[in-house]
């Protein structure tokens, strides 16, 4: 009962998770230290844990105003092309190393996509979906145009001397209009 559910267990809220190396804030005597961390990107936050079984994050921050970018200047060793940064003006920056170049690119792309989504009022969708929606809208427009022209042709066949509005009064059998 005391176990607090971890955010990364809620798979509906998680966009990406996995091990990254995070650069520590305070450099040691030997230079910057990199620590392996289980990182989780949710729809609002970036969290990092000591490992994937940890119950409490070692740190977290709202991702909203951050920018993500690859940065091969963070390391001098063979993994320098696997590095990326999370930057926000006036806030702490975070530096990470992914297990591979492709994984680093994927983290950056996921974060950039999320940030674009957070800054937009519309829900992004795939290009294929957009094309399908445009085709559906065109079909609806054509349907409306053809039904409008049908209505107009029906209206033109009516006797022009007859009123075209519906009379709201009904004459009941046995009654003559205005017979009082």
Automatic annotation (TrEMBL):
Coiled-coil segments on the chain, per record: none
InterPro entries per record: PH-like_dom_sf, PH_domain, SKAP_fam
PH domain: residues covered: 13-116
Domain of life: Eukaryota
Key word Transferase present: no
Entry-linked Pfam families: PH
Sorted UniProt keywords: Cell membrane, Cytoplasm, Membrane, Nucleus, Phosphoprotein
Protein location: Cell membrane; Cytoplasm; Nucleus
PROSITE patterns in UniProt: PH_DOMAIN (PS50003)
Region of interest (Disordered), residue spans: 124-180
First-listed, main subcellular location of the protein, grouped into a coarse class: membrane
A cellular component term, taken from the record's GO annotations: cytoplasm
Keyword Membrane among record annotations: yes
Acidic residues compositional bias, start-end: 125-140
Protein name as annotated: SKAP1 protein
Organism annotation: Hippolais icterina (icterine warbler)
